[in-house]
Prior knowledge:
4 helices; mainly alpha; 85 residues
Amino acid sequence: MENLESQIAAILERNKRVEADKAWETSWTRRLLITALTYVIATLFLWLIDNVYYWLNAGVPALGYLLSTLSLPWARDWWIRHHRI
Length: 85
């Protein structure tokens, strides 16, 4: 009986980790962190190649990433509804 209890405890612990990973993947903290890192990297690159408005132009890929994260939840929901296995 103890073996079964330890297996159940292991499954419950795994479920907690999976739920935490899922929460991180969909969190605004993650989205904003990636957006900020994208902006910083693009800014540095554009500055290195002597782009005149590097600080402004770096916003294009960062904003593009952020907008793509906003549009994906509804697209994912549509896909799930139409491709249930």
